[in-house]
């Protein structure tokens, strides 16, 4: 067995992959958020449609998209493996648990948080990615050039209050997931230091609030605009 196989099959290797894929997905969230914030521009979706078209025809973005799906899959698989391993390592609960005093609620429930986020992601991909790639798309014309009207698909989805509520709740779960995952990833990579760890934790906490809140703001604002 090669050192790569040994590393990937070890608990430490799995945690390392979890950390690396998690940090990649955190970076993806930032890029995705920057693009999605264009939905709120007062130009009836033109900026967002042009952005979506440029992303769809950029070879580099296509490669990154494939990598992103692969990293999501790896992150989910290894989270399941690690959760099962941790459970098997302690099949019988302690008579008196001090977990609530030694860890945060989010760190003890990462599996539940991740499951809800995965369900949201599948619904989200079905409603947007699948429809844009394989569904019948409305078209729009800008200066004589025809583009897919992705904005119209998003606006229609966010005019449904149930979907908006579902989206906002999912972003709440994402916030809790990030509140532990951000700093945990740096710790797993060995980037923890008595001098820098408090800063990493503060940045992670701020990230876990700001990014999900901005994501949630988009469907809320678009729903209000649809009334």
Automatic annotation (TrEMBL):
> Does Electron transport count among this protein's keywords?
no
GO CC terms for this protein?
membrane
> What parts of the sequence cross the membrane?
16-40, 60-81, 110-130, 150-178, 199-224
Q: Which residues form a coiled coil?
A: none
Keywords, A to Z, come to:
Membrane, Transmembrane, Transmembrane helix
Q: What is the protein name stated in its UniProt record?
A: Succinate dehydrogenase cytochrome b subunit
Task: State the organism named in the record.
Answer: Aquiflexum gelatinilyticum
